[in-house]
């Protein structure tokens, strides 16, 4: 699919301090938020829901304590919702490992990791607060150790003042 066609899939492409974020909407709901590679051009919000998302994400980028109140389309399995609810309970400035989260909800780390990877609403459901026991892990793991996803996760954790992040930053840079 050509970049222009991909661009048309989004009701907005936001150029935020954390990086590019695509906003998909339908029926007055946000259906997905997507981290995008830097080559995507910004796209102004095309509807009121995308405008609301842009406004609230901008406020979060200014203040890590901002609380989102966005109309999110229900997506995912009951297990994924259990994991996502546990992720939402992680305080700003803190991180948990997949293993810690799995123990908390009575599951396995791999299943927690898969649920994190299936998160339709990153930032709003702060999966960046979940790491592997040996580093940032999660969506930051890619073939490019200095890729845009790793940069996004580093920005989010630093923005939120994660003290646990400090040791990881020095071991991964």
From TrEMBL:
Its EC number is 2.1.1.63. CDD domains: ATase. InterPro entries: MethylDNA_cys_MeTrfase_DNA-bd, MethylDNA_cys_MeTrfase_DNAb, MGMT_N_sf, WH-like_DNA-bd_sf. It holds the Pfam family DNA_binding_1. Residues 78-161 form the Methylated-DNA-[protein]-cysteine S-methyltransferase DNA binding domain. It is an enzyme of class 2 (transferase). The keyword Iron-sulfur does not apply. One of its GO terms (biological process) is methylation. One of its GO terms (molecular function) is methylated-DNA-[protein]-cysteine S-methyltransferase activity. Keywords: DNA damage, Methyltransferase, Transferase. NCBIfam families: ogt. PANTHER family: METHYLATED-DNA--PROTEIN-CYSTEINE METHYLTRANSFERASE. This is Methylated-DNA--[protein]-cysteine S-methyltransferase. It comes from Rugamonas rivuli. The lineage of its organism: Bacteria, Pseudomonadati, Pseudomonadota, Betaproteobacteria, Burkholderiales.
């Amino acid at each position: 699919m050509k970049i222009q066609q991909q661009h048309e899939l989004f009701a907005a492409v936001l150029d935020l301090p954390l990086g590019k974020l695509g906003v998909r909407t339908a029926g007055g709901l946000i259906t997905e938020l997507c981290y995008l590679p830097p080559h995507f051009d910004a796209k102004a919000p095309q509807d009121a829901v995308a405008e609301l998302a842009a406004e609230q994400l901008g406020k979060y980028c200014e203040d890590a304590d901002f609380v989102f109140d966005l109309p999110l389309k229900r997506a995912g399995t009951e297990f994924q919702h259990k994991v996502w609810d546990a992720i939402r309970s992680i305080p700003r400035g803190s991180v948990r490992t997949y293993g810690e989260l799995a123990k908390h909800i009575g599951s396995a780390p791999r299943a927690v990791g898969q649920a994190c990877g299936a998160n339709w609403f990153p930032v709003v459901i702060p999966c960046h607060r979940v790491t592997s026991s040996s580093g940032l892990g999660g969506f930051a793991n890619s073939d490019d150790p200095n890729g845009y996803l790793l940069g996004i996760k580093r920005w989010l954790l630093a923005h939120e003042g994660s003290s646990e992040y400090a040791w990881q930053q020095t071991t991964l840079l």
